[in-house]
Fold:
Amino acid sequence: MRGSDLETRRAFGSRLVLAAAIAVLPSESSTPEVTSVDPPRAAHKSEVSLKIRGKNFAQGAKVSFSNPGIRVLEITASTTTELTVRIQIAADAPTGKTSLFVVNPDDSEAEAPFEVAGGTTKTAAVSGPASSAGERFEVYNLGDVASILQSHNKIKGTLIATGQKLTYEEAGKEVFSTSLSDIKEVGANIIPGLNFNTGTFHINLTSGKTYNFIAGSLRPADTQSIVDSLRRTIH
Structure:
């Protein structure tokens, strides 16, 4: 046998061995699994942070719900075994059991139970003095009108609206609290003459004080959603 034929056979045989080895290697793509969702339920008109635990959560994994009244606002992938998902539940979301889905970029998915309960939710997702009940919204406090478009160097806090009062906290400490009856107006900030919505909103009190905020996500749609929710709570 000529040397060139022998080398060709050896090269071909090496390719076969390599192909066989590749064929038996386990796939890098693994199907996600969900072992727990905390909290497992939330109420209408609430904004809640869920801790989804399991395994094989890939970078870029998405979360969705079969209930059309549940909106996913933000997803944070801590590890391959835990996802933090901030959701908002509409006032008219169907009540009862639904399904939560974790979907990896390769379209493999895991399903887990979730529930929309009636009434107001007890949100254990955000700690603080006023964590007993009510609607909670992550926001930046923009201060006075002069700083209305300056969200940099601001501390993210939480607006908490209960049936009796509105509280604003930063790092778990209360910054201010006011009775709902002392709130004169909640509305979006519009630049006069231009009819331009700044994506921020104000809370005017009967005392004359004004507080300006922007949604923690910095998305105008989320800011408007907070305004709508606060108006429903106040009135």
Confidence is low (pLDDT under 50) at residues 11-28, 119-133. Helices lie at 3-24, 220-234. The chain is about 15% helix and 45% strand.
